């Protein structure tokens, strides 16, 4: 697991979290991410595509199993989240990147 700095305040933990997890629209493109996970600066560089793909599938499967969402780990922007919110975030985040790459 990689440490990601927190960029959260009252607005992000309440209004932004509510909008991001509940609005029935896709997340917008080009929303900046935390520098530690930005691929061009501090993120993980791409490796072997098939290996990276297999690892991603395994992580998605593990994350979606009941009781495995990181309910006690605060989200770097949204702060504390319940398991159902983590699962919703995981779905929306994955959907966002699949749309980004036209999948």
Outline the secondary-structure elements.
Layout: H1 10-22, H2 49-64, H3 83-100
Structural class: mainly alpha
**DSSP helical segment count:** 3
Uncertain stretches: none
Total individual domains: 1
Order of helices and strands: HHH
User: Roughly how many Å apart are the termini?
Assistant: 26 Å
What does this structure look like?
The chain has 103 residues and is an all-alpha fold. It has one domain. 46% of the residues lie in helices and 0% in strands. It is built from 3 helices and no strands. The longest helix is centred in the C-terminal third of the chain and has 18 residues, at 83-100. It is globular.
Offer a concise description of the structure.
The protein is an all-alpha fold and 103 residues long.
Q: What attributes does this structure have?
A:
globular, single chain, 103 residues, 3 helices, mainly alpha
